[in-house]
Amino acid sequence: MNRTRRRMLVRTVLVLLVFTAVGAACGYLWAEIWDPATGVVIDHTWYPSPWETGQQAQFDATGWYVVIAAAAGLVLGLLAALIAAGSELVMLVTVLLGSLLGAWTMRWVGLAQGPPDPQHLAASLPDNSTLPSAMELWGPATWLAFPFGAMLALTIVFLLLGRTRLPEEPGPGHAAAAGSDAEPVTHG
């Protein structure tokens, strides 16, 4: 394995590990920021009390996930773009995979840190017992927040800053520009 490929492989593994670690940290942060609603057990069923507060807490869980994931994706996408150096296509695929891995890790860690499902606990509790709501994510679009932020940052750096330029096409009569020591060709 030559030096360039080895360096590219190390960068790829490093980016995947960083996305995973940041996803775990974001999951922990998400669980710490979110406030569960409280509810009451009636006939072995948990109900948010008041109802609107319970619904708002569920919306907040999804909203905080999206905000934290998109911000983390933007920062990591920017950092990955800055270390791409000649391997932009490899970095594009790596960031896409890393951001999906980061999203999954964030979701798993956050949900594991949150309170358990109150419906399962309510089955064995007496009436008027209070329990916190479970942390839930609504909709499949939450999976896209982390990758969207990362790909947006990567795209901005690659396209707007023009990190890689295509080689210029040598004009007629410029054999030296093509790498030859021959004299320029003249048409006459």
Report on the biggest sheet: 3 strands, antiparallel
SS content category: mainly alpha
- Number of spatially distinct domains: 1
Distance between the termini: 50 Å
Q: Numbering strands along the chain, what is their spatial order in the largest sheet?
A: 2-1-3
* Oligomer type: single chain
- The percentage helix is 55-70%
Q: How many strands?
A: 3
Instruction: Please write the string of helix (H) and strand (E) elements.
Output: HEEHHHEH
Give Rg in angstroms.
26 Å
Give me some keywords for this one.
6% strand, mainly alpha, 188 residues, 5 helices, three-stranded antiparallel beta sheet, 3 strands
In words, what does this structure look like?
The protein has 188 residues and is mainly alpha-helical. It has one domain. 59% of the residues lie in helices and 6% in strands. The protein is built from 5 helices and 3 strands, in the order αββαααβα. It has helices at residues 3-33, 51-82, 88-113, 118-122, 145-160; strands spanning 38-42, 45-48, 130-132. A 3-stranded antiparallel β-sheet has the order 2-1-3. β1 (38-42) and β2 (45-48) form a beta hairpin. The longest helix is centred in the middle third of the chain and has 32 residues, at 51-82. The protein is elongated and about 85 Å long. The protein starts with a helix and ends in a 28-residue tail after the last helix.
Helix and strand topology:
Layout: H1 3-33, E1 38-42, E2 45-48, H2 51-82, H3 88-113, H4 118-122, E3 130-132, H5 145-160
Helix pairs in contact: 1-2, 1-3, 2-3, 2-5, 3-5
Concise overview:
The protein has five helices and three strands; from the N terminus they run H-E-E-H-H-H-E-H.
